[in-house]
Amino acid sequence: MQLRFTEEELMREHDYAAPQVVAGHRIHGGFDAAGNYLCPRTALRQQAIDNWAQALLQRGGQLFEADASLLSGVRTPNTAQQKLLLLEGLGQTFWNSLTITGVIEARGRFLVQAPIPDYQSAVEEDISEMALGHLHRGLMKAHGLDEGGEPERGIGGHDVMWFALRDLAFGETDYPEPVIPANITRPESSEPMPQIGRPHARILAFLMNLLMIEFRAEIGFAATEALLRDPELFSTRQAEAEQAADVVQRIRLDEEVHVTSLRVMLGEARDLHFKTGDGGHVLGAELIDPFWQSLVNWATVEQPQLLADRNREMLSARILEHAEGERILRQFDALADAA
Questions:
Q1: Are 137 and 6 in contact (CB under 8 A)?
Q2: Strands 18-22 and 25-31
Q3: What's the whole-model pTM score?
Q4: pLDDT at residue 71 in the model
Q5: Peptide bond into 77 cis (omega under 30)
Q6: For the residues of 92-159, what is the DSSP string, one character each?
Q7: Nearest CA-CA partner of 295 in 19, 25, 73
Q8: Packing angle, helices 238-270 and 284-297, rounded to 10
């Protein structure tokens, strides 16, 4: 079972029968002869991730825990509320969400150039045959290219996919550009995991934040696909909306690669012994688990309520500008998630 891969191998593309083109945009990935979508840079990367996961299990470890409990928390607007707004001609909220997602995805391209430390110097065990040992050898670079594409080659990533599917569903609009959140990771009040070196601790914290974002993004991705496929919506552009939903499905397949990769890396890290500043060592689980539990509470309890309250205030003002705003707002509130 191959466990060591070069950067070229982790970046290798499939021999596509046809490229992915959406609304005139060349997008990453492509299709096999049967028309099945093939995720970008997974000719060997997917096998590498599967092999590292198998090796982790054989050593008695496990993939880092991430299950449906991470999808909890109130959401405003939820799918039913978003559908109501679309039916009432208030599509700007959905258009904004697609636009914001595209802009945030584009930021992921920083991983292509980000200084990723070699974790071998930070741990006692040999990690040359682990995913964590390939973090700086193309694994994060491939992730970043998936998100932000290769604009120098005219190939879009998830960023362009979101903009393209938005335009398929909505066509030309005169909506103003939405305000983009400056940061969607949890703000840290102190340096994470101070027992170990700062660069390695910060990347571990980043990987956990990234896993949380990628995993919870599935809520919005699934809702978006469902809305685009809803026969009651986009009545004048149903074929385009259906095509847009197909694009969302491809993004979801790409993100499965990311989530599994992150779960493998963090699962490996829990079982490793990290060198401490005083010459000793600490088990990775003792570093990772407390940080993760705090992050889970923030992402599933604290942040969702803050966002729901903020969005409800903003959306109520937008709804009340409608000629039947008071009626729509009553319906909107009746569809709210239970706090």
A1: yes
A2: antiparallel
A3: 0.94
A4: 85
A5: yes
A6: HHHHHHHHHHHHHHHHGGGGGT--PPPGGGGBSS--TTSSGGGIIIIIHHHHHHHHH-BGGGTBB-HH
A7: 73
A8: 140
